[in-house]
Structure formats: structure tokens, C-alpha cells
Amino acid sequence: MDLLPNSVPLATQLRNTLVQYHSIGDSEWRVAKKTKDATVWRKPSEEFSGYLYKAQGVVEDVTNRVVDHIRPGPYRLDWDSLMTTMDIMETFEENCCVMRYTTAGQLWNIIAPREFVDFSYTTSYEDGLLTCGISLDYGEVRPNFVRGFNHPCGWFCVPLKDYPSHSLLTGYIQTELRGMLPQSAVDTAMSSTLANFYSDLKKALKT
């Protein structure tokens, strides 16, 4: 079990990595899934042998409220159908924490439940916010779970220029699920999960 990292350089490095992903040109992405709520693209990850996914859609709410529903906190468990438990293990500053969470099985349980321990950081970005995270090798793995690993990932949320009460939400996700899994099953699950994330989030914000 590793010791907790120093939060300040890790947060800075994480933010810089996400801003770098956000500047990747359109030509490098391939559409993986399109729904009325979101478009999901992917490209080979530079972190591991899977894909870096990009998801984007417009959410009809103000930036702060959208991000409050995404970042670690009481809202997330209420609406995110994939997340089954979440505990804040350590808090550094108000916008930095380490959380442990578990996810439900997917694809008729071909993908068994997973556990993650993530460092999470929320900061300002342009006129909006960026909430981002990366997994840590920290804490004992619970029985009955495979420990997955999130390479740098995050969500940019900025107000739409002409409709400030609406937000453009762009996510970058690269999850290494680990365990013995066919890659095609992982790719199918990731695209669908990200598209569903938008529809579930929109429903939650309307309630």
C-alpha cells in the first residue's frame, strides 16, 4: 500500500494533463457512440493499452450545480446508476480529496463489480470548472471486488456563451478495468456508460 501523495503537485499535474487532452485536435478522435444527449469519441490512450474517451453534451443547468452533481459528494450516489458506494477517505483542502467507490457489474456481469480509489481535484477553468481525478494504489482491496484504475480523467464544465444557464460538459475518461476481460466488452461498456451518464445527470438536475 502506497503512502498518500503530496496533493499540491499532483493536483497541478492532473490539471495540466486534462488541459492537454482538451486541446487534442478533432481529427485525432473517432466517434464511438452518439445519442440525443451526448457524443462519445475515442482515441488510443497514451497511458495504457486501452482508449481515451471524450464525451460531450449540453446540460440545461448552471455550471456550479452540474459540477456539484459530478464531483465527490452527496449528490453523486443519488443519480449515478453505475456507482454503488462512495466514501471520502481523506480530505486535503476543500477542493481536494481521496475517495473510494464501487461500481455495479455491467454487460450481464461479464464485467464484475469494481472498486476504485481516486484522488479528486476541482478547480476553476475559464468561466467554468474542471473536476478531475486519478487512481491511487492506496488502501486494502475489498473482497469480491477487482480494483480498477483510472488514468487521468476529468470533466470540463463551462457556461454556453449565448445561454449562460446552460453548460457545455466535456469529459475525458480512460479507465483500466483490470481483471480478465475481452477488450471488445470493455469498449462497448465504456461508450454506453458515458452516454448514459449524460441522460442520468440531466434527469437528476431536473428533479
Protein described:
The structure is a single chain. It is globular, with a radius of gyration of 16 Å. Strands 1, 2, 3, 4, 5, 6, 7, 8, 10 and 11 form a ten-stranded mixed sheet that branches. A two-stranded antiparallel sheet has the order 9-12. It has four helices and twelve strands; from the N terminus they run αβββααβββββββββα. The longest helix is centred in the C-terminal third of the chain and has 24 residues, at 183-206. It has helices at 7-22, 63-70, 74-79, 183-206; strands at residues 30-34, 39-44, 51-59, 83-91, 96-103, 114-125, 128-135, 146-147, 149-150, 153-159, 167-173, 175-176. The chain has a single domain (7-205), classed as 2-Layer Sandwich (Alpha-D-Glucose-1,6-Bisphosphate, Chain A, domain 4).
The total count of strands amounts to: 12
What top-tier CATH class fits best?
Answer: Alpha Beta
How much beta, percentage-wise?
35-45%
Whole-Å distance between the termini? 41 Å
Helix coverage percent? 25-40%
The structure class reads alpha+beta
Order of helices and strands: HEEEHHEEEEEEEEEH
In CATH terms, what is the fold-level topology? Answer: Alpha-D-Glucose-1,6-Bisphosphate, Chain A, domain 4
Average pLDDT figure: 92
Instruction: Give a quick account of the main beta sheet: strands, pairing sense, barrel closure.
Output: 10 strands, mixed
Number of helices: 4
The tally of domains stands at 1
Shape: globular
CATH superfamily, called what?
Answer: START domain
Radius of gyration: 16 Å
| Spans where pLDDT lies below 50 across 5 or more residues | none
User: What's the architecture, going by CATH?
Assistant: 2-Layer Sandwich
